[in-house]
Structure formats: C-alpha cells, structure tokens
Write a structure and sequence with these properties.
Helix content: 25-40%
Structural class: alpha/beta
Shape: globular
Strand content: 15-25%
Radius of gyration: 30 Å
Distance between the termini: 54 Å
Number of strands: 26
Strand order of the largest sheet: 2-3-1-4-5-6
Length: 707
C-alpha cells in the first residue's frame, strides 16, 4: 500500500524552490497547528482554536515553504453543522498562497479511532473545494508515537473500511509526523519530497479554483465585514443611549437570571462561569435548578432550565420540560431581570433552530423578548473574529433572532472562567436592559401564556374516582420543589377505596442520557409511600415532592377518567377511532415488528431492527420508537433490587426494562399503555399518554422504565 516514487521524464527527482501547503482537518485533536510548527521547525502557529486562516512562512531544507492553517470542523459532524464562517475560510485558504497550493495536507491523529462519521465529514468538507482537490491531497498522520512497533500500513488495514477508503481516495499518499520528536528533520524532508513527487504526478500543476468564484467569495466577505461594522456601531450607539438614562443611578445590587436554550447549548457551563464556581452539574437535567452567589458585589440568582432539542418544534418537547420552562420564572420572585437565550458559536445555526427557540420562549409569552439577551458560548472558537462578524456571516436565521432580542448579545468563553471582565460586562448589559424596560422585570403571574398554570387549581381538589374499572397514577421521584412541602397524602386519600386496583406508575425522572436512568416508582393506592423505587437518589431527594409535576399528572388522570379507555386486549390491536387523542393517532401509524428475543438466567432481551426512519412498535412490549434513520434498539428486563424489596416488605408490580440505542438515532420513545388488574379480577388496559420522552441521539443512551 506504500506510495510509489514519481520522477521527471529525465529520471531525476523534482526539487521545488518553493512549496505552498494548506492544512485541513478537524478541531480539537487532529494536530494541524502542531504539524505546521513541526514542518516550519518553530512555534509559528498558536495552538488555540481559531476561526480564521493563519499564514506562516519559513525556509525548510533549502525551500521557501508557505503553510496555511485553517479552522477545523467537528470531527464527526456533517458539513451543514459547520458554521458558515469556517466553511468560507476553508475556501479562502486557496487565495492566501497565490497562485494556489501545491498540496492539501489532511491531518488525522493516530490517537483516535477513525469512524464512518469521521470519513463522511472529511469528504463533505474537502468537496467544498471541488472534486479535483483529492488529486492534490496527502493524508498526514500525527501522533506517530502511538503506533509503537506497528507499521502505518498495518494500522490502516486494521482500522477499517473508513480509513482505507480515505487513503485510497487520496491516491494512497500518506505520511507520519511525530511532534514529540521535532529534532528528527528527516521526517519533514521526506514529507517535502512526497509533495514534490505528487506535483510531478500532477504534471507540475498546483491546485486552482476559478478566479470568478474566489472573487465572488471575497466580495461576499467584504460585504459581511461592512455589515458587521454597522451592527457594532448600532449596538454601541444603543448602549450609549441606555447609559445616558442610567448614569450612576442604576447599579442593581441583586440580579435574577433565567437560562434557556437547547440541550447542548452550554447553559450549565454559562451558569458556572457567571457565578464563578462549579454550581451546576453539567449532565442533562429534567428539572430547573436554582443557584445563588455574590458576583462583582451583587447578589446574583441563576436558574438553569431543561433544554429542548435544537432543531425540533415545541410539539416534540415533553410536557414536563415545557412546564419547567414556564415554572422557571417563578423560582426567582418577583421575576427575572433577564432571560439568557444560550447559543453556541461553534456550530451552524439554522432556521429550524430559530423556530424552536421562538416557540419555546413564547411559552413565557411574547413579552419575554423585551427581557432577553442572546448569550453566545464557546467564544474561544471565534479567535480574533468579532461576534458581530459571526452573526453576519452565519445568515438570516441568527440575524433575525438577534434583532428579535433588540440586538442584545454577549459572548462567554466558558474555558476562561478566570476572566472576570466577561462576566462584569454581562452584568452591566443587564443593568442597561432593565433601564430600557423602565426598571421592569419579567413577571410570570402577568406575562405567562394563559392556559399554562404554574400551580393548577386541580391540585387542591380531591378527585372523585369510580370504584370500577382501571385506574392509574403517576408521580415524580426526586423532584426539586422543597419549598412546597407537599407530600401528596391529600390527593391519595381522595382516591379512597380503589385499594384493590394494582397501580402501575411510569414517571419521568432525570433526563435520559448515557449516564442517567429514567426512575420508576410503584405506589400503593392506600398510601403515598413508595412500594419500590429503582435507581433512586438520596433520601433527601426522594423527600422533595414536585407540586407542578403532580398537578400536571393528575390533570391527565382526570382527563382519562372523563373519557376512560378500557378496551380489552383484542380491541387494542385494532385501529384507533377518529376521536382518539393526538398521541393515540401517532401510535396508530406505526410499523409493528416482532423483535429477536433471547432469554438468559435472569433477563429476557429483545432486539428490534428498524430498516428506515419512522415509527416502529414492538409487538411484544408495546414500546414505540421514532427512528431518525435506520437503527437498532436493545431492550431487556432488569432485576429489581432484592434488598430494597425485602426492606419494604413489598413485591414488584411488573417487569423493569432497560432500553438502549445500539445504532442509529432514536428521536422519541412512546411508553405503552399500563396493563392492570381491576377489582373485578378482569384485565383492562389504561392508555395514559404522558408526553414523549427524548432519547439522546448518537450517544447510545440508556433508560430504565417500568412497563
């Protein structure tokens, strides 16, 4: 598989007096900048992330060598997730070494597994430059020390089809650099010789792009730069006007902040940066978390909220998450001074994300926009690029959102929490916002949408349930409302003599991720004490009841009692009528599959193969999975905690399932009906749709649920 040597027609090797090189690769570990330093023999490139191309030159082995380092893309993300700024810089790299580069060095670290997603990302990003780029590309492997006694050919062969495809696409041209051994000049001279051989193979030509295209890109860039300057001046003037009203009079001694955003936006990290310490757990949470501290002489309250899926509309967000978003404003009474809409600058921002942000913020009412500041995270990825430049280059979706927030925005570098000025400047912008609102804050009692109750009135009414038929009850374990002091006993006493019914409880606990489980509890109809709880938290967390969650759940139960569904097993297999709920209509269009099963000593496993995107229902368990694309899901029964069972003197009410996404992407999980035994000793089925639970895509997330 070794690359063969190429020579001039006379048989002599070509020795160029000048070489022009462009470095391409992913960010965060490929080693592009280090490779540039090794080639030039000095610390020419800063190892920090940059959003612009950087050009450096030097004499190497008797040649004038020009090296262009480009901003990297995310290793396993498609090109549409890469910010427009980065994509344009990759294109413009060609114009920085006229008349064009002799080679592109595609930098890949040997310290990481190379996957199909990585290969696809490389293909999409290099194709930005046009298809002929491959004939000018050499794969440059870094971290050569990781090979040990293994040859690079053995590594390529053993790594899999993805890496083999890439090397073959580049004409089997590759080289290894060991940055830890820069004193070995032969590794650099051999690389330069391979570049010269490639140039001979290309008949002495360098890579060229159409002049018209480069000129068009340059005009576009200058236009965006001018607009960025205009935005900067407009914001500066706006802030000066606000300061004239403030003077020295408005320096709030107390600030109340709510963080909103998608799941991966960096809300919790932003909260930690603002408070100056690790107050928020960086794992995904399903409830609001409130923390306080003194910052720059002020008492600052920060409320972190559960996030939504960044490119999905509000209809796909679980009801519990939407209620937590609404509830967040009431956790810092009388209301927050500002809402931070947290957005990452290191990934592309599309129209779908704008729509999702708009829908979720307006759960708090249209008036929330006058209290909102866009807070950009991962500011280190901008390098020397201004945030105004990023906003203009990213496109209309982000520009619209910033304008909707009154052109109020700020950038945080969560990796540089020691820089106190970025936080004090942010607090000053909050002062200016409050001044622009005439000292007003966002009042949840007045401003939240009608129909979304923070504490519904049904919570204080005792339900009147019939004695016959199936009944179900849901309850949250490990809630986060200690101030309510509510234990649910009044509600349970209202249920009365439904004691004969066995109640199946399926509840959303913490958000589903690969480090957390969906906690499930079983409650007796005679008491509010748990019969059994799997993966429960500490005693204190179990004692914290959730008033808003319980009220939401009871409303669902009251609704089901008005229109009870007690069809038998055979009737359940038939299609739902036109009067079914939206969730039932969703379940009616699924593809029903029989999974592969295997039975062990203590558990039964089911494996469901989904051949395409869509809804798939397991014919054995009733679980329904919304697949984003082709994939595979594994779910199996899990043993109850015997010690916990013995300590409570109870027996399990049903099987406990563990669910894992092995391949592909599960967007949503529909929990099936609860099957219970009524007082008349007949089997009934109760359909309770408690919203959709998101299963984190690509992370092989696991959940546990009582069916």
């Amino acid at each position: 598989m070794a690359a063969s040597g190429l020579h001039t027609p006379s048989g002599d090797s070509l020795h160029l007096s000048e070489l022009r090189i462009v470095l391409l690769g992913y960010r965060g570990g490929s080693g592009k900048s280090s490779a540039g330093n090794t080639i030039l023999g000095r610390e020419a490139f800063d190892l920090k992330t940059t959003a612009q191309c950087v050009k450096r030159q030097g004499e190497v082995a008797g040649r004038l060598v020009t090296v262009i380092d480009t901003p990297g893309w995310w290793k396993n993300l498609p090109v549409e997730r890469t910010p427009e700024l980065v994509k344009q810089e990759i294109l413009l790299s060609v114009s920085l070494c006229p008349p064009g580069p002799h080679t592109f060095l595609l930098v890949i670290s040997l310290g990481f597994l190379y996957t199909e997603e990585d290969r696809r990302a490389v293909e999409e990003h290099l194709t930005l430059l046009c298809e002929t780029v491959w004939s000018h590309t050499i794969v440059l492997f870094t971290r050569g020390d990781c090979l040990g006694d293994t040859t690079i050919e053995q590594h390529i062969e053993s790594e899999g089809e993805a890496l083999k495809w890439l090397v073959e696409k580049c004409g089997n041209r590759y080289h290894i650099l060991n940055h830890e051994n820069r004193g070995d000049v032969t590794q650099v001279t051999e690389l330069l010789e391979k570049i010269e051989e490639m140039v001979v193979g290309n008949r002495g030509g360098h890579f060229e792009m159409k002049r018209e295209l480069l000129e068009k890109i340059e005009v576009w860039r200058r236009k965006k730069e001018d607009k960025a300057k205009e935005l900067c001046m407009r914001v500066k003037k706006q802030r000066e006007i606000h300061r004239t009203f403030i003077g020295d009079s408005l320096h709030l001694s107390e600030l109340r902040i709510v963080l909103l955003g998608s799941r991966d936006a960096g809300k919790s990290s932003a909260g930690n940066t603002i408070l100056g310490r690790e107050e928020f757990d960086l794992r995904t949470a399903a409830q609001c978390v409130k923390r306080q501290g003194e910052v720059a002489g002020r008492q600052v309250t920060v409320v972190d909220t559960p996030g939504w899926w960044k490119n999905l509309p509000v209809e796909y967000t679980p009801e519990l998450v939407k209620q937590e978003i609404v509830f967040s404003a009431s956790l810092c009474p009388p209301g927050p001074h500002t809402v931070f809409l947290v957005i990452r600058v290191d990934v592309s921002f599309k129209e779908e994300e704008t729509n999702a942000a708009e829908d979720h913020l307006e759960l708090l009412s249209e008036r929330v926009w006058s209290h909102t500041i866009v807070l950009f995270t991962h500011g280190d990825c901008l390098g020397d690029t201004t945030i105004e430049h990023h906003i203009q280059r990213e496109g209309k979706a982000l520009q619209w959102l910033v304008e909707k927030c009154g052109n109020r925005f700020h950038v945080l570098n969560n990796n540089n929490s020691g820089d106190a000025t970025q936080v004090t400047e942010l607090l000053e912008k909050i002062d200016e916002l409050v001044a622009a609102n005439s000292g007003d804050v966002f009042y949840p009692e007045r401003d939240c949408k009608e129909g979304i109750n923070l504490i519904p009135e049904e919570m204080f009414e005792k339900p009147s349930l019939p004695l016959k038929g199936a009944h179900s009850l849901l309850s949250m374990s490990g809630g986060s409302r200690p101030e309510t002091g509510y234990d649910g006993s009044d509600q349970m006493s209202g249920i009365g003599s439904v004691a004969e019914s066995l109640l199946r409880l399926v509840v959303p606990g913490d958000d589903i991720s690969d480090t957390q489980s969906l906690r499930s509890s079983v409650y007796s109809s005679q008491t509010s004490e748990p019969v059994c709880e799997h993966n429960s938290g500490s005693k204190s967390s179990r004692e914290k009841s959730s008033l808003d969650v319980m009220s939401f759940v009871l409303r669902r139960i009251f609704c089901s009692q008005k229109n009870p569904c007690t069809s038998n097993a055979s009737n359940h297999e038939s299609e739902h009528s036109s009067t079914s709920t939206p969730a039932e209509r969703t379940l009616a269009v699924v593809t029903k599959l029989t999974p592969e099963t295997s039975t062990g000593f203590t558990e039964t496993s089911c494996r469901l193969q989904c051949s395409h995107a869509g809804l798939f229902q397991c014919s054995l368990t009733g679980l329904v999975f919304l697949m984003k694309r082709e994939g595979e899901v594994l779910y199996r029964t899990v043993q109850w905690d015997e010690n916990l069972l013995h300590s409570t003197g109870q027996t399990p009410a049903g099987p406990l399932f563990s669910i894992e996404c092995l391949q592909g992407s599960v967007c949503q999980l529909h929990l099936p009906h609860c099957e219970i035994l009524s007082g008349e000793a007949t089997t009934n089925r109760e359909h309770l749709h408690t919203g959709l639970f998101g299963l984190h895509s690509e992370s092989r997330g696991k959940i546990q649920s009582l069916l």
